[in-house]
Amino acid sequence: MDHFLYQADELYAEQCQVAELAKQHGTPLYIYSRATLERHWRAFDNAVSEHPHLICYAVKANSNIAVLNVLARLGSGFDIVSGGELSRVIEAGGDPTKVVFSGVGKTVSEMEMALNLGIYCFNVESAAELEQLNLVALRLGKVAPVSLRINPDVDAGTHPYISTGLKENKFGIAMEEAEAIFARANELPGLAVKGVDCHIGSQLTEIKPFLDAMDRMLALIDRLAEQGIEIKHFDVGGGLGVTYDDEQPPQPDVYAAALLERLGDRDLKLIFEPGRAIAANAGIFVTQVLYLKENSDKRFALVDGAMNDLIRPSLYSAWQKIVPVIERAGESHSYDVVGPVCETGDFLGKDRQLNVQEGDYLAVRSSGAYGFTMASNYNSRPRAAELMVDGDKAYVIREREKVAQLWQGEQILP
Ligand SMILES: Cc1ncc(COP(=O)(O)O)c(C=O)c1O
Ligand SMILES: N[C@@H](CCCC[NH3+])C(=O)O
């Protein structure tokens, strides 16, 4: 299993099971594999096994309670960005003392909740947030563990919308200001400085940007030590890419080995925040062909899944493999695979060679991360059901939303 992140997940190998599940539960449908989730999480954990570390799965990638629970049972920590994600972690049986809280806009009530639960660390992203957190902690009679998220100004070489480590991005504290803000954090009585943090972007397929960022961060850690500010952990963020098409991102062991080598003999605990690398290739999105149609010389496969279910193709022009769940023999044609939403940008894939007929099921691969979590009710479409395959059993881990749930909480005027 050398290149497991590139490989078909276990569940897709069982094509018939996918077709049966689609028939039984209807489409559109997300299906995840427990075995794949576990294997991916362990790959990170094993990659740094000897060195003190914490794997904090990035909840935003896939926040289904069953997914979080599977990882919590392995001993995972969690990277959260909202009170909602923290509540999910707790509901799923996650350990709050292994939670790191990222994000540029934490509210006072979110800070209070996280302090009361005793999370591992706040990844603070600005001087203003630092002052606010200090006040909240003092009011509660607590000391908030903090690390500062530093923007190392490196080009992650990924899509501009998911690149976060450049000066012009809203994330983190500029390197030039880092030492002054650390000094300030160190003197505030409601805070305890624990670490430094960076996260330069998502879907990185090269190791170099990670190492460039690490070099700058380690230099900062050394300068802080000279000022008497002792850093105990280095949170390297997430961002390791996966294979959607033919990308060959470094595997977790190669990635971790490179980071550990750079770390040298520094006594620093490492925190990892992988999201996509754990969840993306542990899930597929299954949709059924409603109609085939041709406009002049263009062929369309109109499917029942749409941009509200899986927005990555529309939002980032992301390419995800689309395959028939059961292959047909015979000639294939080039199709745009499009959904029922009233937007020209509503497509799952363009110019795909497919041999399909109405009623066939298609699987959009690598959909376990940033799939369901980015779904919406646009066009008043109920969100899809989610299943998890565990061995030879499949469980409904979230029921398909009912249409009547769509206007819950709305009121008409008297
Ligand atoms: C702070 C932070 N940590 C971790 C992640 C997870 O990233 P990925 O899914 O690319 O591993 C993200 C998302 O990019 C993030 O913003
Ligand atoms: N949602 C993005 C990743 C964003 C990462 C969040 N910081 C994607 O689907 O690729």
Automatic annotation (TrEMBL):
Orn/DAP/Arg decarboxylase 2 N-terminal domain location: 35-280
UniProt keyword Ubl conjugation present: no
Keywords, sorted A to Z: Amino-acid biosynthesis, Decarboxylase, Lyase, Lysine biosynthesis, Pyridoxal phosphate
Coiled-coil ranges from the UniProt annotation: none
Pathway: Amino-acid biosynthesis; L-lysine biosynthesis via DAP pathway; L-lysine from DL-2,6-diaminopimelate: step 1/1
InterPro entries the record matches: Ala_racemase/Decarboxylase_C, DAP_deCOOHase_LysA, De-COase2_CS, De-COase2_N, De-COase2_pyr-phos_BS, Orn/DAP/Arg_de-COase, PLP-binding_barrel
Annotated Pfam families: Orn_Arg_deC_N
Family per similarity comment: Belongs to the Orn/Lys/Arg decarboxylase class-II family. LysA subfamily.
Subunit composition and interactions: Homodimer.
Function: Specifically catalyzes the decarboxylation of meso-diaminopimelate (meso-DAP) to L-lysine.
Protein name: Diaminopimelate decarboxylase
